[in-house]
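Notebook, bench 3.
Goal today: get a predicted structure for DNA 3'-5' helicase from Muriicola soli so we can plan the truncation constructs. The sequence was checked against the plasmid map this morning, with no discrepancies at the termini. Length recorded as 773 residues. Pasting the sequence as submitted so the record is complete.
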Amino acid sequence: MKHFLEDLNEAQKAPVLHKDGPLMVIAGAGSGKTRVLTYRIAHLMEQGVDSFNILALTFTNKAAREMKKRIADLVGSSETKNLWMGTFHSVFARLLRYDGDKLGYPSNFTIYDTQDSQRLIASIIKEMGLDKDIYKYKQIQNRISSYKNSLITVKAYFQNPELLEADAMAKRPRLGDIYQQYVDRCFKAGAMDFDDLLLRTNELLTRFPEVLLKYQDRFRYILVDEYQDTNHSQYLIVKALSDRYQNICVVGDDAQSIYSFRGANITNILNFQRDYDDVAVYRLEQNYRSTKNIVNAANAIIAKNKNQLEKVVWTANDEGSKIKLHRSTTDAEEGRFVASSIFENKMQQQLPNSHFAVLYRTNSQSRAIEDALRKRDIPYRIYGGLSFYQRKEIKDVLSYLRLVINPKDEEALKRVINFPARGIGQTTIDRLTVAANHYNRSIFEIIENLDKLELKINSGTKRKLEDFVNMIKSFQIMNKGADAFTLAEHVAKKSGILLEFKKDGTPEGIARMENIEELLNGIKDFVEGQKELADATGDLTEFLEDVALATDMDKDTTDMDRVVLMTIHSAKGLEFPYVYIVGMEEDLFPSAMSMNTRSELEEERRLFYVALTRAENQAYLTYTQNRYRWGKLIDAEPSRFLEEIDEKYIDNLTPVDNYRFKPLINSDIFGEVDKSRLRQKKPSNGTPPAAGRPTQDQLRKLRKIRPNIGEPTSGGPMEMPDLSVGTQVNHTRFGKGKVIKLEGAGNDKKAEILFEKGDVKKLLLRFAKLEVL
Ligand code: ATP
Ligand code: MG
């Protein structure tokens, strides 16, 4: 059997075989950085390094799981169980469960998601009597988050005159007080937000040298994927942990740094050589992912950026087809184009849905694409937007479960203390909150001690509060012996949540009930999965942590054959045979928020580079002339990025004869645009063109981005072959075969063909590349 090192080229082998000491792999997209990381771990283990001593940090937990599986395949062992692998957040949450008590946190601390943080901040703003139009809770949450990511504590904030002045200028002089309250309240609730997971890890490693030493000794080998997107907080953790043994391996691509809005700092990669002694730098140049056309076009795009490290990327792969460019009139039409193109490619090439991805700049763009895919019955999976775990009914059930583990969890308690309704009103909750702040206790503890406190709460309400607390306590007792599934099922019933939605009876209520069932199924799966692991029990704490840190990508069950819809940001590191990049328009991509400075525009361009380099065989770029944004139909201009791609890489699908001026009527309101009417419309500049034809000036402008203008276009549907059952045919890809069944009519006519190679395929005749023999 051949050894796994033979799966690598020479340039890739070098960093894999590199002995001890710091190393960095800098290379363009698709050149095998992630592969190098995976193989390096396998190699270390083969060399006798205990997997217990390896830590790998990845962009998603799913990537970590896949890497683990691959390593297990390579080294053929079950040793991978001890590998610590995952996102920064999940790895350090785990570390804090062991050692967070030194900072005063319980080991069962709750993780607040962004929504919890925002609710808490909103309630603090209200309690402080501040104007909610000036103190916007989402903005404040954002600010606090960025302070935390830059390690600006409350104390540091108050000592920083510039920050104080900036917030005073923004008419928010109380921001520091909100920050203080927020931190105190999270702490009191035994909760950490996402940023705390990094901030507190840093605090722990700085304040407790013995803890630092313990983990330095444990993680003798540290590996980081996508290093270009680490933020300051993450950088410091990696630096501290690797300080003793210096066995740090980072891989990244400065041209793919796309998270600066979240505090990622590209200088981490640029300064790596300065931060460690004797850094070995490796470069990979061969791209294995994409066709020549895609690689070359992507190279040309990124070359427009001034700030970047010199890099070469080439590929030995086929030339491939050109990038297809499509223009539509409205976003709905754009969606229809994408859906039919996916459908055609699927039928023509006999591909599964999962070979197709649609990427967009912002989440809201998915709606039009989703509508079109649904109409075509093409199954899809969407990442981003409201994740499953953030749906109301799911958060309700999870809040009960969180309370079972940590009754101090204020956000969970406020969510469900009166859901389902049990007659506990907002005034009561406000009074309890005031008392909790006053006595520096949690609301739960206040309720437990109601008899001893003089609160203005009547005896009827008191009894209801006590009933609630007793119910949670009964769940806690049960939790001692039951697994997460048994408990969750019990809680969903006994809390009354299931009944509440059942009673509701509306389609929405039924959907919510089904979602809860889905959640329970998920918990069951989780429990089964954990049982196979050596160091897991499948209890509730483990499940809640898994949920809190699940990124959108992680919920993916790989066996699902669906088209993937996601933002470009979350597509990082992934690859698909067919990629559609939609909404290539000014103000959308590049985003209106990010074109003020060169560096913002360069980040948008890097984002475009990331998007295009996800494609293996074929990339599509689409844009529309009118788009609904913020509830209004607006004119859209083609993105400047389109002009930046050399014409020779582009195949324009929108022939000039179809060129239409922007419709003065709205096709979405009036249904399909009546093309004959449109042709008679005057364009807005007043000079009537010949029917449907653009003026010379417009042509010139168009030509800049659509090179093939004026030339006849090819690639339309082919003439349908005349077939009957028994006809012998030849297919360009599948070879010779015989028609065994025909169905449908007209454009929908399909043939089932038994090919000589043994497989049966159903082809849509309109597109099938068949020759009758
Ligand atoms: P990105 O910058 O997008 O994260 P990357 O540099 O991490 O890309 P990988 O994802 O590791 O690149 O590799 C890209 C593709 O090329 C993968 O499908 C991988 O399996 C394949 N590949 C990498 N190296 C080789 C090789 N030596 N032989 C064959 N296939 C390879
Ligand atoms: Mg990668």
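The chain is about 45% helix and 15% strand. Residues 315-379+559-652 form a domain with the Rossmann fold fold (CATH 3.40.50.300).
Flagging this for group meeting.
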